[in-house]
């Protein structure tokens, strides 16, 4: 008999469904008094270091309609490019910045806005610097397994041009699906689930 | 928010990348019998690459975020002296990684319908009654060995608009954080013996019967509290980290 690897299989994913707000943003869902705040509501305090920016996101379905029931989480480095995680071995991140946020999209417009700071650059596995980016994770009714993608910044052309992850995208016109143009202090990105301009999602 | 969970502080941290996700084990994005997936499923190939620091790291939550009743759905929304209606249950188990190691200090969030199958949500249209003493959310953080437990009532099954007569089996939604953002997972827990499990288009999106069985909690008479609550065991597995038998260090460190 051959050896057994004795590995367990990951629990299979199931959709977050239409009522994800009850569990993850109960105050937003009108269930007050259980948790003091919705987790991930505030990323930034007045002590947080870095340039204040807003990230405005929508998730668009294959019919061109914004999802009204999506939930988005973001994860990013601090202004110096350090993650606020026990698994960050390069140094201590800004103690006043968790780097993680969570929003339900607006039930009318399908938009959500994260007030955050512009992240610094983080090294890729071979030591080259990645361009500043924010990791996005999207769940909703009809999405069977959470979608990973990234937001890159439209005003970081030279960093984006040398980013080792963007360089892995074979069809070069699709790089643009990850790049949020800047207008004032706001970066805006539509995440398209299908179609000509379908966002590049990551198996990562 | 404190960022280092007490369960993590004294452990040796492993910082390897995570095992590749076995996408054939999970439901595919497109499962046409679950109609909403038709317009919400990406159609192009995913971009596959090894984890970077952005996925190896992830938020970790301290016990200071937890309130006293966060793991008690029977009471956390109930008026003083009241409790939620329904079959009282303990849901407990361990959060493990693919190597079988307990995942310590991980946040678990749950949500569910009430005993009649009704959610407390403005989009909810099922005629079953709301329970004034049941909100439907709870959370806890796993212990040093990955163990967790919470107390709730058994949710009811409910009909939903999909096919002309589709019913969800009784279930509890779980949101799970591990230690890295690549481990982020949402799933659902079903109850042993529920005949609706095998009829549900959402469950049937999972290709392998053995994978579905991993989402079915088992009644555990040894863990019940006599004259109080029955108990269901539900273990959850997250992606495992590669151990660094051979260090692949970042340059410049
Ligand atoms: Fe549900």
TrEMBL record, chain A:
Keywords: Dioxygenase, Oxidoreductase. It holds the Pfam family Dioxygenase_C. It comes from Neomesorhizobium albiziae. The keyword Oxidoreductase applies. The keyword Oxidoreductase applies. This is Protocatechuate 3,4-dioxygenase alpha subunit. Belongs to the intradiol ring-cleavage dioxygenase family. It comes from the Bacteria. Coiled coil: none annotated. Residues 43-195 form the Intradiol ring-cleavage dioxygenases domain. InterPro entries: Intradiol_dOase_C (IPR000627), Intradiol_dOase_core (IPR015889), Intradiol_RC_Dioxygenase (IPR050770), Protocat_dOase_a (IPR012786). One of its GO terms (molecular function) is protocatechuate 3,4-dioxygenase activity.
From TrEMBL, chain B:
One of its GO terms (biological process) is 3,4-dihydroxybenzoate catabolic process. It comes from Neomesorhizobium albiziae. It comes from the Bacteria. It holds the Pfam family Dioxygenase_C. Residues 91-119 form the Intradiol ring-cleavage dioxygenases domain. Keywords: Dioxygenase, Oxidoreductase. One of its GO terms (molecular function) is ferric iron binding. Belongs to the intradiol ring-cleavage dioxygenase family. This is Protocatechuate 3,4-dioxygenase beta subunit. InterPro entries: Intradiol_dOase_C (IPR000627), Intradiol_dOase_core (IPR015889), Intradiol_RC_Dioxygenase (IPR050770), PCDO_beta_N (IPR024756), Protocat_dOase_b (IPR012785).
